[in-house]
Amino acid sequence: MKTRGTHLALGAIVIGASIVGAPGCSNKAEQAFEQQQAPAAIGASASVKELMAARGLSEADVEAALKTYMPTGKKDEYMIFASGGQSGQVLAIGVPSMRLLKLIGVFTPEPWQGYGYGGESDKVIAGGAQSGHRITWADVHHPNLSETKGDYDGEFLFVNDKANGRVAVIDLKDFSTKQIVPNPLVGSDHGGAFVDPNTNYVIETSQYPTPLGREYAPLSEYKTKYRGLAMFWKFDRTKGRIDPAASFAIELPPYTQDLADAGKIGSDGWAFINSFNTEMAIGGTLQGKPPIESGASQNDMDYLHVVDWKKAEALVAAGRATTMKGVRVLPLTVAAEEGVLTLIGEPKSPHGCDVTPDGTAIVVGGKLDTHATVYEFSKIKDAIAAKRYEGKDAYGVPILSFKDSIRGQVEIGLGPLHTVFDDKGFAYTSVFIESKVAKWSLKEMKLVEKLSVHYNIGHIMAAEGDTVSPDGKYVVAMNKMSIDRFSPVGPLYPQNFQLIDVTGEKMRLLSDMPIGIGEPHYSQMIKMDKLHPVKMYPMGQNPYTDKIDPQAVTGGKERIDRKGNVVDVYMTAIRSHFTPDQIEVNEGDTVNLHITSLEQAEDQTHGFTVNMYNIDLSLEPGKHENVSFKADVPGVFPMYCTEFCSALHLEMAGYLLVKPKN
Ligand code: CUK
Ligand code: CUA
User: Fold this and answer.
1) Is residue 65 in a domain?
2) What is the pLDDT of residues 260-281, one digit of tens each?
3) If we measure between CA atoms, which residue out of 461, 481, 432, 578 comes closest to residue 524?
4) Domain span at residue 570?
5) Ligand 2 centre and the CA of 472: distance in Å?
């Protein structure tokens, strides 16, 4: 591809810069080379040298700058979709520049996009209610791009909300959130929102066990009444929405299921979920009992859950499921008997569960173990087919021999967590306690190199890393702490993304990006040329129904209809006025505003707000919005456009007059 050429070219520039005898350049041969080459580049080189000295930059710094600097107007090669952690949002970031391109409102209202402030998007947020409770934040962990044949297709993004057991669907046609699906059975999720290689399902597995269906049972009945769950949300690609009615779930034992991944190529049709706390510790610190953290760290082995979801799907279709809160759930007994669920030991309190690009192996990191354990899928499959079980757990779930299921273990270091892959057969594992990225060979099962990162790396991510054909090139360390990396901003520090160049023999740390909005967990990086977002909407489009809104207005058809105490205002927005711009209602009236942007020019966005009513809309070209409110306070309320859309933007205003009752 073109980019290879670019990299070579950059390399040449770097050599040019490095031979000018920068401070710290003591290599004689290089200096001799410099004298030979100097005439061709002397002007630029001299100033580069001065700049380097003035800013105290090393050659490595200059090389990193040349690899990441994006001149104005030039575009990035990749886009990262990163979880926004507690912000409930998703970040879109360009690579290699690490420039923030967009903050996508997902679970949390986001005012710039007018997301969750009175308009149509309120329905998306309302759809995410759990037990009738509107929830306006989330703990976003894992963004996952839709796939076709195991490759990112750039159409949709799915993210999970660990805190509230929800999954969201973001349409990459307009980078906006279209659906939030609450899981009616669980109290939290974590292994999500992973997709199978053709995005038939979005997979969401529970984290902390609870009685299924969000029911009550005392903790003394933990082992009998509490359960885990693997949810398979059916994704309807033509509608671009999850179809809850066509979805199903598998009941799991009350171990704390953690990360999950879907099989690919030969392991397509299977899912893998690791777990901790197979001790089923429940804490009780006030009663003098050990906290969950120590209770959960007694066993030397926890369980990798191997799930034959194709078989589960067939059993559900054959009527073997029971329906709970509208979801078809395959009972644990059936899953155990039919070979849908099988367990394998995994080293003490694991984290990370990552299927290799070729689908032949699953890599699990051991938080309290120094290894990355590589499970061989063919061995697992054969053992299940032959029913070569070592025993059963307390719930009757068959257990395979650990020894006979693995390809091997690689000594990584203290606290290996997540693993990603490149195009050359290397795996990169985040090593939390050591604050390092460990590069190792999947073929030779051997550690190759370790790179220090800053600090306490959690997730790690690679370019196109979860596909059947990763790109290599870039790895991103997603560090939990930044300590001394940035200017201080008070006791809450930003997390730190570190971009790493993995094209060469040695890994090179290129740049830092502070994330001052939440703690991102995972992210994915897609080639920019796979994304094809629209530049504007068709006139009158409601982005949340993906249709022309029945209330959309065209120019000249603007009007105010009154029926009793209901006032419908059909309004248009175009540079630089609203029609109508005077709305008179009576105190207590219900006001329905229907606003269509008549713009069809790129990047001509208007905003709409009216004083006091907590209404804030973003009207991108062609977009239609509906907003309703009760005019319950008499007075005069300015309304205006909130985007600086033209020279006469400030004049894009009007009045809502609410006449007092008496
Ligand atoms: S978890 Cu956060 S560092 Cu939710 Cu994927 Cu491992
Ligand atoms: Cu429209 Cu400012």
Assistant:
1) no
2) 999 999 999 999 999 999 999 9
3) 461
4) 541-659
5) 44
